[in-house]
TrEMBL record, chain A:
Gene designation: pstA
Organism: Palleronia pontilimi
Major location category of this protein: membrane
Family listed: Belongs to the binding-protein-dependent transport system permease family. CysTW subfamily.
Keywords associated with the record: Cell membrane, Membrane, Transmembrane, Transmembrane helix, Transport
Protein name per UniProt: Phosphate transport system permease protein PstA
Keyword Zinc: no
SUPFAM superfamilies xref list: MetI-like (SSF161098)
Any one GO molecular function term: phosphate transmembrane transporter activity
Pfam families: BPD_transp_1, DUF3333
Protein's membrane topology: Multi-pass membrane protein
Subcellular location, record wording: Cell inner membrane; Cell membrane
Ranges that cross the membrane: 35-57, 223-250, 270-290, 296-320, 346-367, 419-440
Organism placement in taxonomy: Bacteria, Pseudomonadati, Pseudomonadota, Alphaproteobacteria, Rhodobacterales
From TrEMBL, chain B:
Domain of life: Bacteria
Pfam family, one: PBP_like_2
Keywords: Signal
Stretches assigned to the PBP domain: 20-312
SUPFAM superfamilies reported in the protein's UniProt record: Periplasmic binding protein-like II (SSF53850)
Protein name: Substrate-binding domain-containing protein
Keyword Signal recorded: yes
Statement: the UniProt record of this protein carries the keyword Secreted: no
Signal peptide: 1-23
Any coiled-coil regions, as ranges: none
PANTHER family given in the database record: PERIPLASMIC PHOSPHATE BINDING COMPONENT OF PHOSPHATE ABC TRANSPORTER, PHOSPHATE-BINDING PROTEIN PSTS
UniProt cross-references to InterPro entries, sorted A to Z: PBP_domain, Phosphate_ABC_transporter
């Protein structure tokens, strides 16, 4: 008692209303820490907003494209010189032979609309995409009876014209541009007022194939998307069974010894290996040694499988580990074999975790470019739609991120916009996959 | 979800795929090589796919050397049919090819590519260069009073009073590019000779090889930056540095005339006419190489090659010239060469 009163007398006066210095200091430190945390999150959010904002801002225009509606007189003298309407003979007229028709039709349209211009009729080709001639030729060869008639075509406008409607090309920059003149833009303005030139949503950007450097307006993501799809099939088909089998064995059956320790450490190490290393491995093993075809989604899928495996093994093992031992004990207790306890009880309970890990691994593989550079999936590759399952796996193809990389390095500024647009498509896929993973986890995950 | 089902399905897929890999015969032309030739090859491949019944050929990039290396790996469906190159094949490469059984090669020159010197359109007045300006601006060491000294020039006006007084910031292709070789030979070496530095070094008693490599050695103090990526990267560097001067291909410049302005070299403005006449000094031929053994085996290979050098494609006013290729005046001879399948060493 006396001690306590002495101590109370020694201690400074305390009140629960006024806070003493040390408490104040502690509280301030806590407040500061919270402020740091909020600042960190805010900074992260700002980066995210800036990133997504700039992607959307730059890329959204790629989904729209400018088209010109033009009636073309299919002159028999130029298209079918023999006059037999025989598609085989007419195929001898190449796409270059169709260009004069289109130039004439364009000039005709301009005069018909009463537009006065100083542009010579011969220079009208700056208005439309060079893909238009192939469109004409394909239509004529598919239907030779059209020859001699005037047929209305909906053709792509040239990338500079498209850029003008999207404010990428201004009249100032046109003055310095050798590919198009201000006069062309006057024609475009006039035709637009007449409704002959329209900008509308372009499905071909999502579904189409890659185009050459001279016609960015025609390029699309579709074939590369199929390439990614077939690669993901390979990744899923190989890495899920291999990864799950490996982790079940390591987690449930393998003895704890030095060898399994080494294996475990190496799996964790492999997960951190830069992806380009897997690309070199793929080149050396799959293409040079096993002689698989170049640029094939099969090889891309194999390389990405190697890259995804550690991720899947690690997440599967975590999922298996999170199933409480009581489940195993109960199963063994009622007389199940070790394998029965794993496959009937542990694995079903771990499945949501495994699937989430797999989807995250796939999403990572979907966005990977570096290994694909080395196995020949970058270039002018994604041009032909595969004609079937085996051609889908084996014919040269690109992948979505590789296609974006390729577009970003091409000379025409219009490709830059398409690269951003491609990023939007890729992000939509990644978001969708992550959303599925979250849904699965929410719906099926059990907490113990 | 049943694990057994999944496993079976994936095994079937894997087996089917690898089985088909062995059975499949290739029906499309495969091309790899120079990233300078890639745009032209892609334009031709696209038009080829449109005009013929064959599938569109596949063109990979990766550089001349890498492409030729793959080309020389051997003969067979698993190797590429055509290598694009922004330089002629070297003696060593021909030997390496022959060692792997690729001894019959058809060389096709498709035209010329100009190398231009461009800067930001609103930047300082870089309108006229001489090779000597570039040598003096970029050399690592210069001869002075009988000894080699570190390049003292910091501003363009130091090397030539007519140039703007801004810091030297040059963006030149990295050593893995074929363009670098041309730049070294036709600009730096030429400049070295023009300024008399070459003679001065010779007088100092240096060996000829040593003189040449001293002429082509580029300073590493940051005034000159090697660009290992492509021209898009050079363009980005120039856009962010108003004083920067970059080295571009003519085709790239022609597609970006709204942001770049070009300088004359030796008083000649680079364009298709001056390059094809040889007046503009910095240009180089572009090639592709065909494996003769693949002709007739890979469908469409010869048609593609013929189509590439057809007058309407590679000639004046064709899509390649429109994109920036300088047409080869001897195109007819090249067409004949492919028609007759004349290999290197034969006839020429």
């Amino acid at each position: 008692m006396t001690d306590a009163t002495a101590a109370a007398a020694l201690a400074p006066k305390k009140s629960i209303i006024t806070v003493d210095d040390r408490t104040q200091k502690r509280n301030a430190a806590e407040k500061r820490f919270r402020a740091y945390g909020i600042a960190a999150i805010a900074a992260g959010m700002v980066f995210l907003v800036v990133l997504l904002g700039s992607i959307l801002l730059n890329g959204v225009t790629a989904f729209q494209q400018t088209f010109i509606q033009v009636p073309v007189y299919l002159d028999p003298a130029k298209v079918d010189k023999e006059g037999n309407r025989d598609p085989e003979e007419m195929a001898k007229v190449s796409t270059f032979g169709y260009k004069p028709l289109l130039i004439e039709a364009m000039a005709e349209l301009v005069t018909e609309r009463g537009i006065e211009t100083e542009i010579a009729p011969g220079d009208m080709d700056a208005l439309f995409s060079s893909s238009a001639v192939a469109q004409l030729r394909d239509r004529v060869l598919a239907n030779p009876d059209l020859v001699g008639e005037t047929v209305s075509f909906n053709i792509l406008a040239a990338s500079r014209v498209d850029g003008y409607l999207k404010d990428r090309v201004s009249r100032d920059s046109v003055a310095r541009d050798k590919n198009i003149d201000a006069g062309h833009l006057d024609i475009v303005d006039a035709l637009r007022a007449e409704g002959d030139v329209v900008k509308r949503f372009n499905w071909d950007f999502i579904l189409g194939s890659d185009a050459s450097e001279s016609r960015p307006e025609q390029a699309g993501m579709g074939v590369a998307m199929l390439g990614s799809f077939f690669m993901m099939l390979v990744v899923l088909g190989l890495s899920l069974p291999i990864g799950v089998a490996a982790s079940i064995y390591l987690e449930e059956f393998a003895p704890q010894n030095r060898l399994t320790d080494v294996i475990e450490v190496n799996i964790s190490n492999l997960a951190a290996v830069p992806s380009i290393v897997f690309g070199i491995l793929g080149l050396a093993v799959f293409i040079q040694f096993m002689e698989f075809p170049q640029s094939a989604p099969l090889v891309g899928g194999l390389v990405l499988t190697l890259m995804t495996l550690p991720t899947i093994i690690i997440s599967t093992r975590a999922a298996l580990k999170s199933v409480p031992p009581s489940i195993r004990d109960a199963a063994l207790g009622v007389g199940a074999s070790k394998m029965q306890s794993v496959f009937h009880h542990v694995l079903p309970l771990a499945m949501p975790g495994i699937l989430t890990g797999t989807i995250i691994g796939l999403a990572q593989a979907l966005g990977e470019t570096a290994p694909l550079l080395l196995i020949g999936m970058v270039g002018y590759i994604a041009t032909n739609y595969p004609d079937g399952i085996s051609s889908g796996f084996l014919d040269p193809n690109s992948a979505m991120p590789a296609q974006i990389y390729e577009w970003a390095k091409r000379a025409d500024p219009a490709y830059y916009e398409r690269a951003w647009g491609g990023i939007i498509i890729l992000l939509v896929f990644l978001f969708a996959m992550n959303a599925i993973a979250i849904l699965l986890r929410r719906k099926f995950e059990r907490r113990w | 979800m049943s694990i057994t089902k999944l496993t079976t399905a994936s095994t079937v897929i894997a087996l089917a795929a690898s089985g088909a890999a062995l059975a499949q015969s290739r029906d499309n032309v495969q091309i790899a090589g120079s990233s300078t030739v890639l745009p032209y090859a892609s334009i031709v491949a696209e038009a080829f796919g449109e005009n013929f019944d064959y599938p569109t050929p596949v063109v990979e990039s990766g550089g001349s050397s890498a492409g030729l290396k793959r080309f020389c790996e051997g003969v067979g469906e698993n190797t590429i049919d055509i290598a694009n190159a922004s330089r002629a094949m070297r003696e060593g490469e021909i030997e390496a090819c022959a060692a792997n059984g690729v001894d019959e090669i058809i060389e096709v020159r498709i035209g010329y590519d100009g190398i231009v010197f461009a800067s930001q359109i609103d930047g300082p007045e870089f309108t006229a260069f001489e090779p000597s300006d570039w040598f003096l601006a970029l050399a690592a060491e210069l001869p002075q009073d009988g000894a080699m000294v570190t390049n003292p020039n910091a501003q363009w006006s130091d090397v030539n009073a007519e140039l703007p007084a801004v810091d030297i910031a040059a963006f030149i292709p990295g050593t893995k590019h074929g363009t670098r070789e041309v730049f070294e030979e036709k600009v730096l070496l030429q400049g070295c000779e023009d300024t008399g530095a070459m003679q001065a070094m010779m007088d100092m008693g240096m060996e000829e090889d040593a003189v040449e490599s001293a002429c082509m050695a580029v300073r590493t103090d940051g005034a000159s930056v090697d660009i290992d990526g492509d021209y898009t990267e050079t363009l980005a560097r120039i856009s962010s540095n108003p004083d920067g001067v970059g080295v571009f291909g003519l085709a790239f410049y022609e597609n970006n005339t709204d942001t770049l302005k070009v300088a004359t070299m030796g008083g000649v403005e680079p364009n298709v006419d001056t390059i094809s006449s040889g007046e503009y000094p910095v240009s180089r031929p572009l090639y592709f190489y065909i494996k003769k053994a693949h002709l007739g085996v890979i469908p469409g290979l010869k048609d593609y090659a013929m189509f590439f050098v057809a007058d309407e494609v590679a000639g004046d006013g064709g899509p390649l010239a429109e994109y920036g290729l300088v047409p080869d005046p001897e195109l007819a001879a090249t067409q004949e060469k492919i028609e007759n399948e004349t290999t290197m060493g034969e006839g020429s």
